[in-house]
Automatic annotation (TrEMBL):
<comment type="similarity">
    <text>Belongs to the ITPRIP family.</text>
</comment>
<keyword id="KW-0732">Signal</keyword>
<keyword id="KW-0539">Nucleus</keyword>
<dbReference type="GO" id="GO:0005640">
    <property type="term" value="C:nuclear outer membrane"/>
</dbReference>
<dbReference type="InterPro" id="IPR026250">
    <property type="entry name" value="ITPRIP-like"/>
</dbReference>
<dbReference type="GO" id="GO:0005886">
    <property type="term" value="C:plasma membrane"/>
</dbReference>
<keyword id="KW-1133">Transmembrane helix</keyword>
<dbReference type="InterPro" id="IPR024810">
    <property type="entry name" value="MAB21L/cGLR"/>
</dbReference>
<keyword id="KW-0812">Transmembrane</keyword>
<dbReference type="InterPro" id="IPR046906">
    <property type="entry name" value="Mab-21_HhH/H2TH-like"/>
</dbReference>
<keyword id="KW-0472">Membrane</keyword>
<dbReference type="Pfam" id="PF20266">
    <property type="entry name" value="Mab-21_C"/>
</dbReference>
<protein>
    <recommendedName>
        <fullName>Inositol 1,4,5-trisphosphate receptor-interacting protein</fullName>
    </recommendedName>
</protein>
<keyword id="KW-0325">Glycoprotein</keyword>
<feature type="signal peptide">
    <location>
        <begin position="1"/>
        <end position="15"/>
    </location>
</feature>
<feature type="coiled-coil region">
    <location>
        <begin position="38"/>
        <end position="72"/>
    </location>
</feature>
<keyword id="KW-1003">Cell membrane</keyword>
Amino acid sequence: MPVGIFRVCLVVITAIVNHPLLFPKENGTVPESTEEIIQKMKEREESLRLEQLRLEREIAEQEATQKSLENAPQVVEESKEEKVRWDMWTALSMVIFLLIELWRQDFQEGNWQDTGGEEDDMAVLGKAFKGVTFPDKAVLASFYEKRILGTTGDMARMREMVEGFADDLLEALRSVCNRDADMEVEDCMGVGSMYENWRVRKPFVCDLIVPFAPPEPYCFRSQTWCSGDSFPPDEQGYGTIKVCRADEDVTGCICDKTKLGEDMLCLLHSQANTTRPSSEMEDLLCFKNTQYLDADQVMKWFQIAVTKAWNRISHKYEFDLSFSLLDSPGALKIKFRSGKSIAFNLTPVVQYENSDVYFISHFPRSSLAADLPSSTHWFLTFAVYERRFIQLVSKMLPANACHVICLQILSFLHGKQCSLTGPSGLTNYHLKTVMLHLLQARPSQDWAPGKLEARLQDMLKFLEKCLHEKKLYHFFIGNGKVPAELGFPIIFQRAEPLNLFRPFVLRRDVYRKTVDTFHEMLRNMSALINEYTVHIPLAQTNGIHKESL
């Protein structure tokens, strides 16, 4: 045992001495040359090796003397135990060496980040920003006016048209459903960039969510990853929905968990309530032989119901309606006779208790998103609270605040770069999360219109820091500073923060592609913005605005 402890300590000391952060390449406080440092390290390593050999000889002599005083069976037994200990400490030493090597490789791969300590913790300037010319506020204002501002009116007209049609479609859906057996559909709500007024890239797509509930006497009882039971890391952000009778005990009766004798009867539940036919639960869109709501079953039911509803009202409209994506339940497309089309998403959701958090059956996919654990796991969306938070904060900001403009410019730049070099792991939701964090961190006066340039740089620096650390936390989950006016559920505020960049740790190829795309976007930023401000006359801008992206 002492030999093993000494070996581990020796490994740790060697790792500290040889770690690259101890002797950085650019350090003006170290007067020695590289050759002198290497020579000293070799001398230190040789002295430690000689000391180790001396201690091993002394310990070996002591152990030999002790073993000679013991009988043969004890010697054999102790030798086996000592061999097991020696193998254990040897394996531990190998693991430590492996961790040191991985640490060194990570340092080499991530050395584009400047490790200077003078920058603010929320805005670390890395090497990616060296040599990058940021457009000034006059150029940014001109770019916004010519490229983005004109989309506001288009979004408003499209929202009005889509919402009116969706209300008519859902009313027809209710009329074709059996109210005693089918799910009950509520009114739809608009969420996402179209309803937060920062969508810039075409085609415009409205996102509408439609809450639904089971018929009486059933109800939904949900369970999230932060409700007490342990969930694996890859299931954080998800939950399950159980279909129960309204009079069923929430915690579950013992008669449902224990096999009762033939002469015993539960006084709370009749035999008819304790067992339900499998076909009945499948009619309630549950996974086979379970009481858990199945997202795939919900998708099939919703698509069939929408098709029936459209057949009932199609004679009123002079356009066609079709599903644009087979694997998304409510991805719809309106096709006019002129050839133009409008896309929108009508997605079924389940309300979490009495809040505005919803379980969403299908979520937009990205290259960073992992596959669902199963069709009974539902992703939680906080889109309604995100929209309310932006509206609440906007009332406290100066007139014509620049927070939405910053997000629009960043979204445009990233989308344009992805169209040139291919998709990356970043999504518009990540960009919006960066804005939400900065809205909470910075005082309201920092978002004045004249500070557009500074705030855009803040968002880019914050995003670079998150990419370097592979950490971008969900804005609401684990955030104890959410304004009380929102009425946000306390269970999610007390939960552990949810890292949206966790998949980057597991998928290095996607991470490297994302970082490369981000760096390329920084280098091309001025060129992309100038393309729509300086070189393109105002008369031509509107034409490009309608045709591109």
